[in-house]
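Annex B. Sample input.
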Amino acid sequence: MKNIFLLFIIINSFLSNAQLNKSGDIIKLNKLISLKKTDNGYIFIDCNNRTSEEYTYVYLKDYGIIETNIVPPFDPKAIIFRESTNRCYVNGNSNRRNYHVFELMKELGTIDDYHFEEELTFSNIRNGLSGDYGWISQNGKYAMANPQGVFVTEPKYDRPSWFDERESPYGFYRDRKLLFNQRTKKGKKVTVILDKFTGKEVFATKDSIVKYWNTENHLLKTTKNKYYLTYKSKKRKVPKEFIYLNGLPIESSIFTSPRDRRNAFFMDINGEKIKSDLIPLTNFYKGYGIVLEKILEEQEFNYYGEPLYRKETNTVKIINEQFETIKILETFEQREHLESNRYRDYFNDYGQIIVSNRKESFVMDYMGNTVFKIDKKDTKIEEIYKGIYEVSDYERIYSNFYNQKGEKLINQKLLNMYRFDNFKFKEGINENYFTLYNHPNLPLIKLNKNNDIIFSEYQ
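Annex B, continued. Sample output.
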């Protein structure tokens, strides 16, 4: 099987040059460089008419890899090396070389440099270790390109930008196809958000991005320190308090700021605060939110008139937008707060939130129902994508992934087979995947955009 695969690559390399039948014929490799047939061989020519040295043979391989060979004229006095059938070694006095098209362009001076996650070798690109995209620098500007040697954007951005799997200022950790960058237009900086698959600018603004959820919902700050919220595609001026929003209300009308309990508040779309003694812990989802109610017992004094300890009772509950209690989740004294639950972040698109305490963690919906719970001590749950949860323990002995329905996504055979390699979630255009960190182009599990399994190895 391996020999057949190698034969296919060799045949494909020759077929790649089949269009160059006569001197003057040209194949365009990308928008900046082409391969031209000459009387005695081949040359590369770039967009500025710079040319490479002449090669006797050129083979265009997969993944943007090029093999060149210069065979000098026959010299009977030259020392001839022993012939070898291994193409990785030099035969005779020829000068054979394998390199990526971007390396060739750098040597020609067509581009200044290129940046990818790993070196652009055949195996790295094939296995996905070079990443889905990279950046090409040219005359102080950067263009996005893929590892196969194709430009995705024009070289107009001020710097390379990479997706960071940690939480970014714009909350991109739940939407992995977005990248932010900057370009300069008429002397002014323009912040842009790019789709990493297409290079398309999905959003551009001269203002500062404070919060970005999508093109219909974002918060901007102008140079005059004014804040504008675009909510459901409608733009309005709002007070500074909106910078503390963690999540937007979903099918609801009340905004909350639950990040800092001491300064937490409710407000409407106009920024008017809604008076309440309750403390919001989440955003509202379909008219329901989680809040904390603190009740202090009446102050009493000792014989000397000194105030005694006042018992503080904390109640965590679900309320509706009329601030009516729907369900009590837990009640505890303030001195017991370390044993209480922590309600992380905000309700996601599925109305779910991660709840944890010292002993356990679980996923709960907006009505207080448990979606799934792991009966293992010291396990943690993290939402790595919209509705995709990674469950692991701190020693990495146990690990798996679940969707918003509470379905386990990695079957036991896969876990047993790849116990020494970590599984990696990878977003695609039409499907999402689970691969391995060392082989990110090997999809072991395929999911549709609703996180349902449509293919799984060994299932």
